[in-house]
Amino acid sequence: MFKPLSKTLAALYIFLFAFTLTNSVRAEEKKAAEDNVAVVNGAVISKQYFQRVVSAAQSQHLARTGAELEGEALTKAKEEILENLIGGELLFQESTKADVKVEETMINEQLANLKSRFPDEDGFKGWLAQMNFTEDEIKKDIRKGLAVDQLIKNSFVSKIEVPDQEIKAYFDNNPQFFQKPDTIRASHILIKVDQNASAEDKEKAKNKLIEAQKKLKEGQDFAALAKEYSQCPSSAEGGDLNYFEKGRMVPAFDQTAFALKIDEVSDIVETRFGYHLIKVTDIKAGQTITYDDIQGQIKQFLVQEKVQKQVMRHVEELKSNAKIERLFDEKKS
Prior knowledge:
By secondary structure, this protein is α+β, with helices and mostly antiparallel strands.
């Protein structure tokens, strides 16, 4: 199904500024060169920051593909990350020259969004302590990201036009993007067990689910049993996982769930999380999205696509006129 680009280049920098400490200071304040990976017009990009972004990229790649970034792929990723960070610093420097103003309310909104990713304020403060950050440092970095975002909106987004015929042509030429897939709504009862658990512990976990399975066959309510037995956070909702499309869940769960009929309950399914009983509660057949329904999103996508290309070209121009020292050494990074 069609999805607009989720991030412009500027939004990427907001993400980096908000979730990792930028640690960009004037060169005269920097530590020894071996502590940095680049100096951009006198502002350094620290090795600590660089490694933090690389670690985030590795985690995202593992979550997306199930494989580690290593060898030549990791080296290439590091090089691309460094160039992106250099580009981000150049854009921030340009926003400073342009005297871009960022409203305090916007910073607070981004900070609140960051905090919402933690269960509570103590969780957020614990993360700050673990990463050796202060809230003021985070706000400063959010300000930088928002300044870059505003610069790009002023210099690029506001000047881009996408005529209706271009939107319609994209719709007509890419029908594969405008199909809503089949989705199901399912609930489950999960008994957790580590993949590396002993045979005895696995048997105990499975027997606990067999106990719930017997009660289900005796006529007890699935949702009530999920609240009683399930070790998934969804237990509070009677095991409800809401709607999802094929490919969203781990393979064994996914394959079993999409083979069930409405109100049908699976046999015990084993995944890396443990043992499951799965019940499908609704099925929605896929359908074609109409042009009227998707026109606005296509326009947004095409604008973002053009912005990305223009910003990347602009960053290359900035690089050609900047004083940049690249200190990255793969053996030391």
